[in-house]
């Protein structure tokens, strides 16, 4: 038998748009880093998880739900849909649960993108929009931010000239922390060409001042070309359980459900989500706590000569100057993970997740020490 004839060439079988894309690589694990640098503790200020932890009540709900692990989450799935709808005062048909925004980014891409469609993505922003769109066969067109904020007029212009299928909008934007103003949003929607939909990732929405942030639910209900993606990973403190939802017009929502697996969210996550929504005032408390921590960190860093951008999220983009990747490397040795800005094309900046004040004080002290060359 000809052994070579039996060997498959996988690259020739996979969809051509996937060839050349790199899978996401999370880097070394915490235990690997602890071992490598002989550290007892490492503070994760690099992934914008909520460092205050799960909202009260979530973990008890998970414990109680585990006894039901043998059952598919049929009822639990519609219970969450209804709990979110109640909380947001929206019809349940507009809520599409999912195992996080990452899953919804893929669902949106598979729902809309045909090979060769143009898709507009700001630069810099959350990396998965470009990656997943390209994987689905889109031609990704990047639009630079202006003054570290999304350039909404340019995003709409490019959508028009490219006859784009989708525009991705991240509000507040990762990694800049900037917020879209209501007037900018209204002008953007008015300028968006027919045939283009805006997908708005609102992962950090609940951290933003409710007086200042844009409410887009009415746009969805009114049939504007807008889909919202939201998560329990950030202010709810449940990143490890993987839970999110889309807010979509009732005509679109079933398509998102068609491309997702039927019960794609697990029972423990659904129970935790419902428990959090039973006490929505906790979200406001957490917002205030995070905002105070953000102000504290920005103040400490300013005293040490480092400016950060105004942020409405649970992270700060901090100007450190020089080689941000080398600086991030030195911070690891001291027990702090941060995200080097050069990974987003922002040389000389680092992105830092905010958290409990004592942690912020220790971090600001270590960062100042690294920059002034004080040995460990
Ligand atoms: C803008 C943005 N969207 C989505 C996610 C991931 O959300 P999820 O955990 O719901 O998949 C992140 C995580 O950092 C993010 O920064």
Descriptive account of the structure:
This protein has helices spanning about 10-15, 30-35, 60-65, 75-90, 100-110, 130-135, 150-160, 180-190, 215-220, 255-260, 265-275, 280-305, 325-335, 355-370, and strands at about 45, 95-100, 120-125, 140-145, 165-170, 195-200, 225-230, 245, 315-320, 335, 340, 350-355. The longest helix has 23 residues, at about 280-305. The termini are far apart. It is α/β, with parallel strands linked by helices. The strands form three sheets. A seven-stranded mixed β-sheet has the order 2-8-7-6-5-3-4, sandwiched between helices. It has a three-stranded antiparallel β-sheet with strand order 9-12-11. The chain has 14 helices and twelve strands. It folds into two domains: about 5-55 and about 280-370, Alpha-Beta Complex (Aspartate Aminotransferase, domain 1); about 60-275, Type I PLP-dependent aspartate aminotransferase-like (Major domain) (Aspartate Aminotransferase, domain 2, 3-Layer(aba) Sandwich). Helix 3 packs antiparallel against helix 11 (about 265-275), helix 5 packs parallel to helix 6 (about 130-135) and helix 12 (about 280-305) runs parallel beside helix 14.
């Amino acid at each position: 038998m000809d052994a070579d004839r039996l060997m498959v060439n996988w690259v020739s079988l996979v969809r051509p748009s996937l060839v050349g894309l790199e899978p996401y690589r999370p880097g070394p694990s915490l235990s690997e880093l602890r071992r490598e640098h002989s550290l007892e503790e490492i503070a994760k200020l690099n992934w914008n998880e909520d460092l205050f932890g799960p909202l009260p009540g979530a973990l008890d709900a998970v414990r109680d739900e585990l006894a039901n692990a043998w059952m598919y989450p049929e009822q639990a799935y519609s219970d969450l849909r209804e709990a979110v709808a109640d909380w947001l005062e929206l019809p349940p048909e507009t809520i599409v649960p999912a195992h996080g925004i990452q899953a919804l980014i893929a669902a949106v891409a598979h729902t809309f993108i045909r090979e060769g469609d143009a898709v507009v993505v700001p630069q810099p922003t959350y990396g998965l929009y470009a990656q997943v769109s390209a994987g689905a066969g889109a031609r990704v067109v990047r639009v630079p931010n202006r003054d570290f904020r999304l350039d909404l007029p340019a995003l709409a212009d490019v959508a028009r000239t490219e006859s784009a299928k989708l525009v991705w909008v991240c509000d507040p934007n990762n990694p800049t922390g900037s917020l879209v103003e209501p007037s900018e949003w209204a002008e953007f929607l008015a300028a968006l060409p027919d045939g283009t939909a805006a997908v708005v990732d609102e992962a950090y929405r609940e951290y933003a001042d409710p007086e200042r942030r844009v409410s887009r639910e009415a746009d969805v209900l009114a049939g504007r070309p807008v889909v919202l993606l939201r998560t329990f990973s950030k202010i709810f403190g449940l990143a490890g359980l993987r839970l999110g939802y889309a807010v979509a017009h009732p005509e679109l929502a079933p398509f998102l459900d068609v491309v997702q697996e039927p019960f794609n969210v697990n029972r423990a996550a659904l129970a935790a989500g419902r428990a959090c929504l039973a006490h929505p005032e906790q979200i406001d408390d957490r917002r205030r706590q995070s905002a105070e921590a953000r102000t504290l960190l920005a103040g400490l860093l300013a005293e040490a000569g480092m400016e950060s951008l105004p942020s409405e999220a649970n992270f700060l983009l901090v100007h450190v100057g020089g080689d941000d990747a080398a600086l991030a490397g030195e911070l690891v040795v001291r027990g702090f993970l941060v995200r080097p800005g050069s990974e987003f094309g922002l040389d000389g900046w680092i992105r830092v997740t905010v958290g409990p004040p004592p942690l912020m004080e220790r971090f600001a002290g270590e960062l100042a020490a690294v920059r002034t060359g004080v040995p460990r």
